[in-house]
Amino acid sequence: METFTRLFGSLLVFVYHCFDRVVINGYLSGLSRPGQVVHFFQNVLGEPVIGKEVLSRRTNEYQAWVEAFARNHGIAIEWAEPKARKEDYVRPALRRMERAHRHGVYFILKSMEQGQTFRSTVPRFATNDPNYRILARQRSRFTHYYFYIRDEVLGPMVMRAASFFPFQTTYYLNGHNFIEKELGREKVGFRKNDNAFLAVSDPQALQAAADRFTSEVIRKRLEYWTLILGAKFSKRERAAMNLRHFYAVSQIEYCRNFIFKRNFPIHRIFERGCEIGLWRTTANKIAEVFGQRVTKRLKGKLNTVVEQIEHGHHIFRAYYRNAFIKQYEKFSTYLRNEACSNNLADFGLRKSLDNLAAVREKLLAVTDRFAAFQAQLLNVHVDFPLLQRIALPVIAGSVRYPGIKNSRHPHPPPDGSAAAQQYGGLRLARQTDTPGRTHQLRAFRPNLRVEPASLRSAQAQRAWAPGTRRLPLCLPSHSQRRAGGTPAPALPQTPLRPAGQQLDLTANSKPPITRPIPPSKTSSTCSPQPDVTCSNVEVLRFMNEAVRI
Prior knowledge:
The protein is an alpha+beta fold. Helices cover 32% and strands 26% of the residues. The strands form four sheets. It has an eleven-stranded mixed sheet with strand order 2-3-4-5-6-1-9-13-12-11-10. Strand 7 (190-193) and strand 8 (196-200) form a beta hairpin. The protein is elongated and about 105 Å long.
């Protein structure tokens, strides 16, 4: 995390971390097992037979109470539309509640979903007790109620209550809604869009409000709404059974948010992070980010993927068993690293709500390690000093070779020199170790000498045709040029044809005088025959012209 802040600190406005989405399941501790249910109906309520009619009676009573509650408080209760987001459907009712500065339930949706319940069946074979029934847990499809609440402390939240016995409840919270309430109570200016704070007058107050989202605050508000909207039990039933609710974390998300000044760096960082992450985020690196080890007993996912939720909105995910960390950008200046866990046992934690502080520390460390790993990949000035190393000189023994540098304005040749007079256009310079000294390659051209010399390369020692003139080219050494020796006579400068012009072999032109070449003993496929239309002298002139260019 320190590396990320050091690299992009000048581009950031502020950074904060908090809980995002929290899903909590509520269970009745005294009615979670079949034996406890049998004891409740037979010993507490005095029901001799625990059949389907007994269980349906409790369901009908609760459904009737929900209908009466919605009718008495003027709350709309409807069936949820298929393939439609419930939050978008009830958002107009939430806006009306906010404009009126009211708190409480503002909408109720009904939905047919899978849930935990009990099933009573008659034994297959007759028993001595005619009232004996087999009671077992099962998952079935029945009606669930979604209560949309605007709480005074937690902000907008949702409570889902099952209409079948044992009336399991589920709560959907968001840490950003709690922070919004805290900042409004402290009169701190902020700008919030969806579940993200894009601007705030006091970043320290924002982080302090996020740290106050504790298990004690959550439990107090959940107990309040469960008592009002949950299944009803009399005082005698509560005294005879342990009907307290046990709250367990089902899904939890912890995010670290980076707010940038402009959109350009955030888009480039996210784009480059996805490219490098898919290649460098290996299995061992994912386990290191989550603080775990990869063993043969590992079960679950262990991979990375880039998902497209909607057009132009991509999310980078790295999965580890039942948890994952994701990164995405939104609102042009907002970058989020978010760790999500669907089973806290992957981190060696218990799912009770009382362990929320330990969950915060564990997931915060995961986001820190992911940010540090990504900053290490993006820190190309440290990891990939390619241009820097190319520009440095290379020393091999007693020889020092200069590095490659981008010289847009090479040193011009001295005024009055042959190179400056004849080749005043393009100038090629090679930087040497001595400051201010350059070697002009074009200055070597007038010093070409015609003298016999031994052929050094094996390729040059091939057979020549009889009578062919061999004019080797010898460049003077650097010490001879510095001594100021008299330049040797150069080759005769005869007019040369342009590069794109072909030879004129018409009747008016005279063919070049060449000596017939004896046929070669090798195949023309392996060694093509030379062109007899061009003399050796002209070939040499062409080579000379190439040296000048």
